[in-house]
Amino acid sequence: MRIAISSDHASFELKEHIKKYMSSLGHDVSDMGTDNAETGVDYPDFALKVCDAVNDGEARFGVLLCGTGLGMSISANKVNGIRAALCYMPECAKLARGHNDANVLVLGGRIMGPQLAEWTVDAFLNSEFEGGRHARRVDKIGEIEKKQLKDFD
Ligand code: RB5
Known about the structure:
Strands 2-1-3-5-4 form a five-stranded parallel sheet, sandwiched between helices. It has six helices and five strands. The protein is an alpha/beta fold. The radius of gyration is 15 Å and the shape is globular. The protein has helices spanning about 10-25, 45-55, 70-75, 90-100, 115-125, 135-150, and strands at about 1-5, 30, 60-65, 85, 105-110. α1 (about 10-25) packs across α5 (about 115-125), α2 packs across α3 and α4 packs parallel to α5 (about 115-125).
């Protein structure tokens, strides 16, 4: 599966770990930065790179990391078509796919250890959207996006 990943400086180490972990599972992982833990960068810049890759079809899923995951999730959810889920535990990641059809997983590098992050990634990548009543709700998220676009016209 093609997966795009990025982080800010605060979660660089966990990003590197998860990138290698997903590659070891056979995924084609595209690293969109940042490239060190020292240089302070702005998480919205890196959120947008991954969200664009998902929306352009270059990646099936995105993974975003910042210190808490909050800044990345807030930024990513401003992008039309993106449903980003901040998950600190595997059960949330499973439900983010099953119920919300999330296309971006967000992790907190200062909150989660590497093992918990791996389990959370596994749950996300191995769960399918359940459709049915959840599809109706996800469609309504799309309607909100359309309405926002119309209001800006
Ligand atoms: C960076 O210090 C930190 O604010 C950022 O990684 C993130 O946690 C923001 O939500």
